[in-house]
Design brief:
This protein is an all-alpha fold. It contains 8 helices and no strands. The longest helix is centred in the middle third of the chain and has 39 residues.
């Protein structure tokens, strides 16, 4: 719904709710599967870390458990990046493909992967710049909260008012990915009028 409203510069609920119901269900199921895979992928190293910590505490210091914990931290880091990229690319690029071509999430992912394989460096730079944008937005919000002696935090915590206060930031972030995506051709431009 939010993608529809940003792309068409409208504030509609009923039209996109009915029009994109199947797309939303497909996206919801995809996200549940990704989250379950992430739970398993992060849970197994956690169990190994707990056993390694018990081995270090209960016995004389061994190099094996310490190296195991170091390896687990590295695995966590790699897994965190991988799952962040999947979620980021799903929101920023797969959803617009679903929106434009009326496909399911997995079909849109297959179409996006062909584009990603041909433009790995460009999408890597995009991901890095999204991190920079996130840090800048976080710093601005933190400065506003500190500048108002945490009064802004109380306002941001109110559900509707907080969403309205953050709406320019949310529209900017959504529009940024859509504007970046349309540089790959008119078939990826959600801002063009629909036929």
């Amino acid at each position: 719904m939010f993608l529809h409203c940003v792309a068409h510069n409208k504030a509609e609920v009923k039209v996109p709710w009915t029009k994109f119901r199947q797309h939303a269900n497909s996206l919801f199921l995809f996200r549940i599967v990704v989250d379950l895979i992430a739970l398993v992928a992060f849970g197994l190293p956690c169990l190994f870390a707990v056993f390694s910590i018990f081995a270090i505490i209960s016995g004389p210091p061994y190099v094996g458990p310490v190296l195991g914990i170091v390896m687990i931290v590295l695995v966590f880091f790699v897994l965190a990046i991988a799952f962040w990229l999947v979620k980021r690319f799903t929101t920023d690029f797969v959803m617009p493909i679903m929106f434009l071509r009326s496909t399911s999430c997995t079909t849109a992912w297959r179409q996006f992967l062909t584009l990603l394989s041909a433009n790995k460096a460009r999408f890597a730079l995009y991901a890095l710049f999204r991190i920079v944008i996130g840090i800048a937005i976080g710093a601005i919000i933190f400065a506003v909260v500190l500048g108002t002696c945490c009064c802004a935090l109380c306002i941001f915590a109110i559900p509707y008012i907080g969403t309205v206060a953050f709406l320019p930031v949310l529209v900017f972030v959504r529009s940024y990915s859509l504007c970046y995506f349309r540089q790959f051709g008119p078939e990826f431009d959600v801002f063009s009028p629909s036929p």
